[in-house]
Design a protein that fits this description.
4 copies of one chain form a homotetramer. The first copy, chain A, has 9 helices and no strands. With 197 residues, the first copy, chain A, is mainly α. Chain A folds into 2 domains: 43 residues, Homeodomain-like (Arc Repressor Mutant, subunit A, Orthogonal Bundle); 151 residues, Tetracycline Repressor, domain 2 (Orthogonal Bundle), CATH 1.10.357. In chain A, α1 crosses α6 and α4 packs parallel to α7. The longest helix of chain A is centred in the middle third of the chain and has 27 residues. The first copy, chain A, is elongated and about 65 Å long. The first copy, chain A, starts with a helix and ends in a 10-residue tail after the last helix. Chains in contact: A-B, C-D. Chains C and D meet through α6, α8 and α9 of C and α6, α8 and α9 of D. Chain A binds a DNA duplex (21 and 21 nucleotides) through α3.
Chain lengths: 197, 197, 197, 197
DNA sequence: GATGAATGAGATTTCATTCAT
DNA sequence: GATGAATGAAATCTCATTCAT
């Protein structure tokens, strides 16, 4: 593995453990087994490191999520799959997720290139949720009047669960299953008239 | 207003705007119009300032939320009230909320006194959600099999909405209303058999 | 002597000896016998130190020059006094002069606050030369057709002599006396018609 | 153009623009379109680059100046030609001149090989001035008692004008013409007795 | 001849905290 | 109670130079 990869790996672990601001570049270099200056040969600055991590992680997340979605049979299954995928991915890539969640609050101004990266990722996830809702509305597996807002609601729910996951303050597999059941009840057409509200 | 209050006020604004690590004690002192050293007369250290902010803010949030809940007529109304209260409170106390959200990810180890404060606050909110679910189950306004998990789901949803709010990436009043509708559909007994899942 | 004065003194000596870029802040602090951080308590940054040195030195130079000029009897004596004053001042404040001369070339863009300081100082000296030329033209001690340009010529001459002085590449007291004689010949009215050119 | 020439060209431009210390070797390499390491193949170190620039520039300056001087008819014309040559050369080789002027102050100790280069150049120019003065004294175009000191005075004047030129703080063509007139008045024999002083 | 990855020494600056007054 | 000068540890980043290829 090249030095650049070693740096990315170490940085990922340390940012996840201690946060971005709390991790020094000297620490990353030492952990990666390279000279301090080497960091700044491969990356413009400290932020450049996290930028690369974000960019790579976002790509993997989206690619995997899409491949999972492609295997679903109808809209409701899609929604289920998205929620469950997030749970699984969070467990398998806990460090990446932790960095994402840690970094969100530091992203103040909209010009921030990292904020743009994360915003774009979020928007793509919301779009996939929306597409599943639309598919479900078409194939009859989902009854939903306000697709736009409902997509936001589901995304909020997923985000909140992920947060609980990171805080280790709940049995998240169970939480995820209950969230799916919750959505099913809210979205399944049937005795309940979802237009009513 | 005494010097201590001035410090708390300035710190609240600055922490909300720029984050904890990014705000220097000198900056707080200048903004508050006191000498730098005065901060350390009133607070043990920088962390002591945010501790006091958290502690006060949590008290206000909970007291207000409880007083709102006391005025509801049944369990389902309670759930609605909690979600809506969070929206209103977030709007009115945006700085406090922003500090909470900003600080969460920095709280790593469980021994952390600020993490304990926030955990306790979260737990109390979840308890209030649970109590409303139980009330609703008793008064017939809610059909819910797994109260414990459902409370976590709703809390996750609220947390996610608050996050969207802070990121200013959604029309949150509309999002809140749709979330309430979503919960209503998921929780209202009726044609839909909520035991089924 | 307070710490701030000690810093200024050390910085003056070191900047004169080695130049601005070549002197590190750590070096200044050590020489002044203060902690490294103390520099940045008293000055915004490294440039702030040289700014203060410039500002103080320029004031002293101008004040002294003006007081010398006030004691002259006519315009030609004024020109002589200016050239001689510069020689004496350079000898007595060799460090200040060295810093000035060293710093000039680093001052690129006009927005530079230090460049503005130095430009203003230079302009004031040129104005004093011009005033002496005008006085001399009025009192008959000087014959000069183009006062504006001649003032620039004399200032260039003074600047060049100061430079030679710093480079220690000439016997400058003798050079100064010859420069005065040179100017006398060029400016004294008489058999030579200075309009001619 | 070979790589070495490209490096020299880029370095000349950058040193003139930003100064020696402020220009990094990496910057020069990039500007020249060669690899960073290539610099150190062609030059011993960073200083070696400026040494070559100085050496070449000094040669050109002197050769041209001498060729101009050869075409003058008497001593006074020689002095005029030197002053005017400097103005023209400065305008045409502004970068070279800027590097010279920028570098002078950094040359502290006499052992410095670059200082020796510049000192030698300066001495040769002064010698040429002196020779013109002597020629003029012989051919009757100049009246000058102290040739040695006067040569220094004229060199100082030229240096000062060049500095004004670089600082862009005067209309230097006009300044140059006035300086020539100034020298004419000071040096031309006539009604004025130059022995007198 | 030429490259560019890697280095390590050092530079400037920030900042929470202390303490004498 | 309050101050603010002073500190020193640590952080980010720069950069001339080396060297294996």
């Amino acid at each position: 593995m090249g030095r650049k990869q070693a740096i990315i790996q170490s940085a990922t672990r340390l940012f996840a453990q201690k946060g971005f601001a709390e991790t020094s570049t000297a620490e990353i270099a030492e952990d990666a087994g390279v000279a301090h200056g080497t960091l700044f040969y491969h990356f413009k600055n400290k932020r450049g490191i996290i930028h690369e991590i974000f960019s790579m992680a976002g790509d993997v997340y989206l690619r995997n999520l899409k491949s999972v979605l492609a295997r679903q049979n109808n809209g409701m299954e899609g929604i289920e799959a998205i929620i469950r995928f997030n749970e699984n991915y969070s467990r398998d890539h806990i460090q990446q997720i932790r960095i994402f969640q840690r970094f969100f609050p530091d992203l103040g101004n909209d010009a921030d290139p990292e904020k743009m990266l994360l915003d774009s990722l979020k928007q793509q996830v919301i779009d996939l949720i929306r597409k599943s809702l639309e598919t479900g509305a078409a194939d009859g597996s989902i009854a939903c009047a306000k697709i736009h807002e409902t997509a936001d609601v589901i995304h909020s729910l997923i985000f909140g669960i992920t947060h609980m996951n990171l805080m280790e303050s709940a049995d998240t597999p169970a939480l995820t299953e209950e969230a799916i059941a919750f959505c099913r009840r809210a979205l399944t057409p049937g005795g309940q008239d979802c237009q009513r509200v």
